[in-house]
């Protein structure tokens, strides 16, 4: 609670919280082109033909940043 509140005041957002354990599983940073951290393993659900959205959006953010 206290640490999360302090981090959120500085722009970190806990955008995914496990409803059973109340543990933070996903974090994001406001005002950043791409800042996401996940506790789970998106690579397990990712294939070349069907990549996980985390990877798709990371590549898109990189391309967008390069093109600025």
Could you walk me through the main structural features you see in this protein, from its secondary elements to its overall organization?
The chain has helices at residues 2-9, 53-66; strands at 12-17, 24-29, 36-38. The chain has 68 residues and is an alpha+beta fold. A 3-stranded antiparallel sheet has the order 1-2-3. A hairpin with a 6-residue loop joins strand 2 (24-29) and strand 3. The model has no long low-confidence stretch (mean pLDDT 92).
Beta-strand segment tally: 3
Could you tell me the radius of gyration in angstroms? 14 Å
The pLDDT mean sits at: 92
- Distance from N terminus to C terminus (CA atoms, Å) equals 38 Å
What is the tally of helical segments?
2
Low-pLDDT regions: none
Give the strand content: 15-25%
Protein structure class? alpha+beta
**In sequence order, what are the helices and strands, one letter per element?**
HEEEH
